[in-house]
UniProtKB/TrEMBL annotation:
Keywords: Membrane, Transmembrane, Transmembrane helix. This is DUF2269 domain-containing protein. The keyword Membrane applies. The keyword Transmembrane helix applies.
């Protein structure tokens, strides 16, 4: 066999690097969930408070926390998850739970970038232009809870998937395993056969 036809095993992370990337992934994912919970509390305060100054403060803090932290934390969680998928036996689409987590993470990052952050910026701008002692009408609507409910559900689903790893292999994962089992890994193995 020529070297061009021999399939080389994919590059895997060393145990030390895998643990480091895993720590980064877990911390950023938990941070992402934590930011969402903090924003949920602040949204609750902004909708149900009877004090306009407290409402203004809750909205502006929500913008500061979400506006500065959500995108970097979500991107770190996404990139570290991609590195773990590519650099470990799990792959990105070999197992159903990993593929579902990948899709959910891509959706969550997209929603954060294109929906949540612009909404927070708009709400903060409206708050800054509203006089002290006057409620911000846009912040009084309970529909601000929908993004928080959706994102929290997605993050909890991803956590459950990571812990339980349900579903087995994807069709691609089954084919890749079958191919790997049929093709000798190296010339040394071929000589031993």
């Amino acid at each position: 066999m020529s070297t061009s036809t021999v399939r080389r095993p994919p590059t895997k992370l060393t145990p030390r690097w895998r643990k480091l990337v895993l720590v980064v992934h877990v911390v950023s994912s938990v941070g992402w969930l934590g930011i969402t919970v903090v924003n949920a509390v602040l949204t609750f305060i902004s909708v149900f408070t009877g004090d306009p100054r407290l409402q203004h403060a809750a909205i502006l803090v929500m913008d500061r926390i979400g506006g500065y932290l959500l995108l970097p934390v979500s991107l770190i969680a996404l990139v570290s998850g991609l590195v773990l998928g590519v650099g470990t036996k799990w792959g990105l689409i070999r197992y159903k739970w990993v593929a579902i987590k990948l899709v959910l993470t891509l959706i969550a990052v997209g929603l954060t970038l294109f929906s949540l952050l612009p909404g927070l910026r708009e709400l903060a701008a409206l708050t800054e232009s509203t006089m002290d002692g006057v409620f911000v009408e846009m912040g009084r609507r309970p529909d601000g809870f929908y993004p928080i409910i959706v994102s929290t559900t997605m993050y909890l689903t991803m956590t459950v998937l990571s812990v339980y790893k349900p579903g087995g292999k994807t069709p691609y994962g089954r084919r890749a395993t079958t191919r790997r089992d049929r093709v000798p890994q190296s010339a040394d193995q071929t000589r031993r056969l």
